[in-house]
């Protein structure tokens, strides 16, 4: 078996046939290397077939997430210069609407000739031909497309084949969106070494499968692992764990079974093809990002390109065959961060300035310190706060918008928005969120938005972020306070205070306004199941978002389960 999901599976022989049919159809349409094809599919075996078929034809795939709002999809379609988009049947009508006015063919997955023959004599793609374009958050208010070539991808895969050759795993659990570049590792690397890939819906689906199989490789963001550890998960059957996309919390490092699981901390921006450095964690290692992968280089530099000595902090700069050609249609942005001759003593070397700060240890390993600017990573997603602010300010009622990241042990990182409205205007935060959801993916919507009379500024006219962070979020909730009515209310208030880090909560409080998100919802569900003995699904947290409504639902469910238990007891007697 090569690919497996809840619905179906494909052997390596079948994968060869299906991906070759797609590659052959692309060839017959007067295909040329570097041609761009969009993938607009739900996570499935077919989605991976599309990726592989496009690459085998010498083309370039552009992932389009169905969870993205139409405005974002329309921008990506126009900017990427697609010739066609492969879609699931259920998504075809929506994609056709997004493609209006663009010369893009929308084709349903599998609706190509089944007798087409792949021409193996066709010239192979050049190293400079593009393999994929992944859009990341942009500071100017629009996403930017990072171009990765076939040469970049081949270099990375050759390194992965060496790095993971001795690891004890038979199956890879793929749970990352294809719009996030670590998916490239988990969906393509296993096929190089004859392993099996189990395609999951998302990171939240991991718990349903852990323990069902042995010798499993997990490749995900630390926040997913953190959430599972807090629920008591011990990762049975997992033999290899890769964490990437954000810094590893100390709590994760302390709780992981580093003796029985081979754990790596992997660092790297999309612009350097997935992973740039690797570090093997053990009980005595601490949390570092390690050393650059083979044939790549990493430098710690000052503001003027001067190399920093061991132990001195500076900007992490990367070089080597993994470097992206740059940003699609953005030559000026590309020239700012992909710079040639900037590093002192290396006039011919092109480096990518990551904007990350780090320092080198005496043994050559790198310690990650943080960001230079306002780009952040939350639950693995790379986010430009400036993009969210620009979208906020496009609302007719909003005069000014600021977005900050609040970080605490109970909730982890969460976005908080602050807005000043135009004179004499009113706007509910719910209406503002609805507006933002039409332009941004859900993970970029601040769960808490606070309306202020004015945005505090420093003496030199800049936003006073320290003053904004001092504002007590819990005291500014707009929900009408109402006290507890029963024991279930009291239990939920204690539970929400524990996980959301808020002090005063009334029963009208909203889970998501208080900073809740899907990972915290898992913890809430787990606690209710264990402590109240009520069978509840995570979907109920999204359905009953206020504490009052969730409490009422739990009371009814508990009553129904008690009645059912009594009925079964009577039948038994």
How is the topology of this model organized?
Blueprint: E1 3-4, E2 9-10, H1 12-28, E3 36-40, H2 45-56, E4 60-63, H3 70-80, E5 84-87, H4 92-98, E6 105-108, E7 130-136, E8 144-149, H5 150-163, E9 171-174, H6 182-192, E10 196-199, E11 216-220, H7 222-230, E12 238-244, H8 250-255, E13 262-267, E14 277-281, E15 291-292, E16 297-301, E17 314-319, E18 326-327, H9 331-337, E19 338-340, E20 350-360, E21 366-371, E22 375-378, E23 381-384, H10 385-393, E24 398-408, E25 412-421, H11 429-437, E26 448-451, H12 465-469, H13 487-500, H14 518-532, H15 539-543, H16 547-572
Parallel strand pairs: 1-10, 3-4, 3-5, 5-6, 9-10, 9-11, 11-12, 12-13, 25-26
Antiparallel strand pairs: 1-2, 7-8, 8-18, 13-14, 14-15, 16-17, 17-20, 19-20, 20-21, 22-23, 24-25
Helix pairs in contact: 1-2, 7-14, 13-14, 13-16
């Amino acid at each position: 078996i090569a690919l497996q999901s809840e619905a179906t599976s494909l052997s390596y022989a079948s994968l060869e046939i299906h991906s070759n049919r797609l590659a052959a159809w692309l060839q017959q349409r007067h295909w040329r290397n570097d041609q761009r094809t969009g993938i607009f599919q739900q996570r499935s075996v077919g989605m991976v077939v599309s990726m592989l078929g496009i690459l085998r034809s010498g083309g370039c795939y552009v992932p389009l997430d169905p969870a993205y709002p139409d405005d974002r999809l329309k921008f990506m379609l126009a900017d990427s210069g697609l010739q066609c988009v492969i879609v699931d049947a259920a998504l075809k009508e929506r994609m056709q609407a997004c493609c209006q006015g663009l010369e893009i063919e929308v084709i349903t997955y599998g609706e190509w000739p089944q007798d087409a023959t792949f021409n193996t004599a066709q010239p192979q793609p050049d190293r400079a031909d593009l393999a994929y374009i992944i859009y990341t958050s942009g500071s100017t208010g629009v996403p930017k497309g990072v171009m990765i070539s076939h040469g970049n991808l081949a270099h990375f895969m050759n390194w992965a084949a060496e790095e993971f050759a001795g690891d004890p795993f038979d199956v890879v659990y793929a749970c990352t969106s294809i719009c996030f570049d670590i998916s490239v590792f988990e969906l393509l690397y296993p096929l190089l070494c004859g392993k099996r890939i189990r395609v999951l819906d998302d990171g939240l689906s991991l718990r349903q499968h852990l323990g069902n199989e042995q010798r499993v490789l997990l490749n995900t963001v630390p926040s997913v692992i953190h959430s599972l550890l807090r629920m008591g998960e011990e990762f049975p059957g997992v033999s290899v764990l890769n964490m990437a996309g954000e810094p590893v919390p100390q709590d994760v490092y302390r709780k992981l079974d580093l003796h029985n699981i081979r754990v790596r901390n992997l660092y790297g921006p999309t612009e350097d093809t997935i992973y740039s450095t690797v570090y093997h964690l053990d009980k005595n290692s601490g949390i570092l990002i390690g050393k650059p992968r083979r044939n790549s280089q990493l430098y710690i530099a000052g503001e003027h390109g001067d190399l920093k000595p061991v132990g001195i902090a500076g900007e992490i700069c990367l070089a080597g065959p993994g470097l992206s050609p740059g940003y699609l249609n953005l030559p000026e942005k590309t020239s700012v961060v992909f710079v040639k001759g900037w590093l002192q003593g290396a006039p011919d070397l092109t480096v990518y300035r990551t904007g990350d700060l780090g320092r080198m240890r005496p043994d050559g390993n790198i310690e990650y310190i943080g960001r230079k600017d306002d780009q952040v990573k939350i639950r693995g997603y790379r986010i430009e706060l400036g993009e969210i602010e620009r979208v906020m300010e496009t609302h007719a009622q909003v005069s000014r918008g600021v977005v900050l990241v609040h970080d605490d042990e109970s909730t982890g990182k969460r976005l908080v928005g602050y807005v000043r409205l135009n004179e004499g205007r009113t706007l509910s935060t719910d209406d503002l969120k609805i507006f933002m959801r039409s332009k941004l993916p859900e993970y970029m919507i601040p769960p808490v938005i606070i309306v202020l009379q004015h945005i505090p500024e420093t003496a030199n006219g800049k936003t006073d972020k320290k003053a904004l962070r001092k504002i007590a979020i819990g005291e500014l909730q707009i929900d009408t306070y109402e006290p507890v009515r029963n024991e279930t209310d009291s239990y939920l208030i204690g539970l929400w205070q524990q996980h959301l880090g808020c002090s005063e909560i009334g029963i009208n409080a909203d889970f998501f306004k208080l900073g809740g998100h899907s990972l915290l919802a898992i913890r809430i569900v787990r606690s209710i199941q264990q402590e109240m003995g009520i069978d509840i699904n995570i979907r109920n947290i999204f359905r009953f978002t206020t504490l009052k409504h969730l409490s009422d639902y739990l009371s009814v469910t508990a009553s129904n389960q008690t009645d059912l238990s009594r009925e079964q007891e009577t039948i038994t007697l």
